[in-house]
Amino acid sequence: MADMSLRSQSTAESKGTSIIVTICIIVGISTVFVLGRLFMRIKILGKTHLDDHLTVVSLLLSYLTVGLEIWAVQSGDGRHVSTLSIEQQSAAVLSTISGFPPNVLAYTVPKFAVVALLVRILNPGRIHRIVLWSLATICLVLVLLCIIILFAQCTPSRAQWEFTITDKSCWSPWVLINVAILTGAYSAALDLYLAVYPATVLMRLQMNIKKKFILSIALGIGSISCFISIYKSTRLPSLASKDFTYDSADLVVWTVVEGNTLIIASCIPVLGPLVELALGRRVLSSTDRKYQKQSDTGGLRSGGIEMHGSRPMNRNGNVVGKNSTVIQSRHDQDDASSQESILVGTAGSAHRPRGIMRTDDVTVSFDSRSVADGRKKEGDGPKWGAFQSRD
């Protein structure tokens, strides 16, 4: 009687519905962010970048994962193995294994999108740029290694889901688990580095602490995926479970959550203008903000954050230059030698450098006699390249 009650409870116990609901919600949220990003880039700014394309690829991989997981749940994934027939077990394992490649790639490709965004905005030096792309590439190599091991761990490979095959040779499942744990740890460390790196650059700039904090959060919110990756790695031993279809369900869900968290995080720095359009007020800045769209000949096409202070006058009636902090992208200065080159001044020229621009407050005063006596030679006097005047 007790055995029948336990079996009945196992039959009723299923994670299938929660799996589908959870992954559909998180993918739906990331879809909203990506659509907002594309609207911002295409409709408002009129130009897309590599990070936008990579983000779209990541979202498509998430869609593929959701489709395969729906198939897996219909086949028996999320239920105890003991409640499934041999045919159901075979279909559940096949569909679950088929969903792993797009699932793990969906949290790998966004790292390249984040790197592309940071390289474009922060303009690091050549060596640091190579390091950033190399770190993301190493993560991709580890993920591809996991995929290869997943399908190569049994000979023939189909013996993993065709239980009628008796003449087979399989590695220990812990080979895949150990490599997957290494990959998860590396992925978490990379997410943390990509989140901290912008803050280290911003903290060296002479700007308001509140601005530094806001910009660091906007560019470093991907650190959340670091903690998700760590927790997900604790679920990896379920790959060796005898009750694979039930125990591996959490692993699938957390892998989807990790990838889509990165997608959302990579979109947030781009969505400032769209958020302000929707809310009708400032959100990411403590001062007035201006977003601009200019022609390609004008050189400024920003999808980032631009903050401007006031333009006060001193007691003598002299105009004091504004304090301006800008995060925007580079098109025409890819050869800048170091991240310090993002600190540049402009004089309202036709071509404005793209990156993080800080313009100090400048007080302009002059004696009326200097105007009457004549003008100084070109090159004398204040360096107007450090002064920016906007109404």
Give a structural overview:
- The chain is mainly alpha-helical.
- The longest helix is centred in the middle third of the chain and has 31 residues.
- It is elongated.
- The chain starts with a helix and ends in an 18-residue tail after the last helix.
- The C terminus is likely disordered.
- InterPro entries: Rhodopsin_dom_fungi, SAT4-like.
- This is Rhodopsin domain-containing protein.
Content of β-strand: under 5%
CATH architecture of the largest domain: Up-down Bundle
CATH topology of the largest domain: Rhopdopsin 7-helix transmembrane proteins
Quickly give the structural class.
Answer: mainly alpha
Overall residue-averaged pLDDT value: 76
Taken in chain order, the helices and strands follow as HHHHHHEEHHHHHHEEEEH
- Unreliable sequence segments: 285-352, 362-391
Rg over alpha carbons: 27 Å
Outline type: elongated
Side-by-side strand order of the widest sheet: 3-4-5-6
Beta strand count: 6
Q: What number of domains?
A: 2
**DSSP summary: helix tally:** 13
User: What does the largest sheet look like?
Assistant: 4 strands, antiparallel
**Alpha carbon gap, first and last residue:** 83 Å
Share of residues in helices: 55-70%
Q: Determine and state the CATH class of the largest domain.
A: Mainly Alpha
